[in-house]
Design brief:
- The structure is a homodimer.
- Chain A is built from six helices and six strands, in the order ααβααββββαβα.
- Chain A folds into two domains: about 10-100, Orthogonal Bundle (Arc Repressor Mutant, subunit A); about 100-165, Ferric-uptake regulator, C-terminal dimerisarion domain (Dna Ligase, domain 1).
- Chain A has about 160 residues and is an alpha+beta fold.
- The longest helix of chain A has 13 residues, at about 70-80.
- Residues about 1-5 and about 155-165 of chain A have low confidence and may be disordered.
- Strand 6 of chain A pairs antiparallel with strand 6 of chain B, so a sheet runs across the interface.
- Chain A binds a DNA duplex (25 and 25 nucleotides) through helix 2 and helix 4.
DNA sequence: TTGCGTGCAAATCTTTTGCAGAATG
DNA sequence: CATTCTGCAAAAGATTTGCACGCAA
């Protein structure tokens, strides 16, 4: 099971964990055991996930030192720290790596729920042009193309949970 | 205070209400008093709204014949009928007119939460091209450019005066 | 009359919060 | 040692569902 990553990476000086510790210190926050565990797990694999998936994963690997509230609290911090990006999808927040990963957008299969990444420089240009016309200061953008992926068009096995884009 | 709509409309043969009734009949569903009230209210003004806003509106106009569950159930039907489009934004679903309204995307101000519509034909072209490359069957897309709108940039937010020293 | 639809209450699901004790700097 | 953090339980916000009765066809 896997996404097809052809996007490469961006050169970064620090590992996500180091970057997070730097962020925490700059905010006068503490480097706790659970924060260390969470950054570590979150950056072990490049996948899209939500809080529930992460919590189940921790449970699966027998990690019981991090509670549900702490997972949520830490995900917020990872967002603030610029390590993760989040998108509201089907009623919950889906996260993905931001730090050390190039800007990209997604194709979302409404059958199997898979998120396929792609990168296209024209989008940012177009975005900036539109923003300029509206005198709008851009912070970022999110483009989700919804439809049906190759596999789901040939095979026959729908599942769904995420729906709204 | 209102949005600036320069997008025009699309010619349609039926009113939203008529289109909804047609949909209901095609599905063997019934045309009830509450469904009639809801399509009517929803299409009276072209605005972005969520379930809560709609419910409050019904309450404001003294309409007490539609319950909360029915509002949610009917919004789903309006989505299925192609009359509304929904987008997951900040934990809740925001709706907008789809029927009789041209395709467009949004600028989302993270300060005042306003959604500004814009239309750019290049986006659909770009979308189709990307989809082609991934052998993906497009159903639609959603592009949200987030940032800060003109008003929120110019208006000095009234903070505590003593801090302005 | 025959169900589909509705309202009500309660349940779900996701995320947040108050608080007392635990851990970090 | 002073705080920040965490876990627990409960709260909150959004949306959904079971069920008995009402209403459209």
């Amino acid at each position: 099971m896997s996404h097809d990553f052809t996007l490469g990476t961006v050169e970064v000086a620090l590992t996500p964990s180091q970057r997070f510790e730097e962020y925490l210190q700059s905010k006068g926050k503490r480097i706790t055991q659970q924060r260390r565990i969470l950054v570590g797990e979150v950056f072990k694999r490049h996948e899209h996930f939500d809080a529930e998936v992460l919590i189940k994963h921790l449970d699966a690997i027998g990690e019981n030192r991090v509670s549900r509230p702490t997972v949520y609290r830490t995900l917020s911090e990872l967002l603030d720290a610029g390590l993760l990006r989040g998108m509201s999808l089907g009623g919950r927040t889906v996260y993905e790596h931001d730090y050390g990963y190039p800007q990209h957008d997604h194709l979302h299969c409404i059958k199997c729920n898979k998120l396929i990444e792609f990168s296209d420089s024209e989008i940012a240009e177009l975005r900036d042009e539109v923003a300029r016309q509206h005198n709008f200061r851009v912070i970022g953008h999110r483009l989700i193309i919804s439809g049906i992926c190759t596999e789901c068009r040939s095979v026959r096995r729908p599942t769904r949970k995420l729906d709204l884009v």
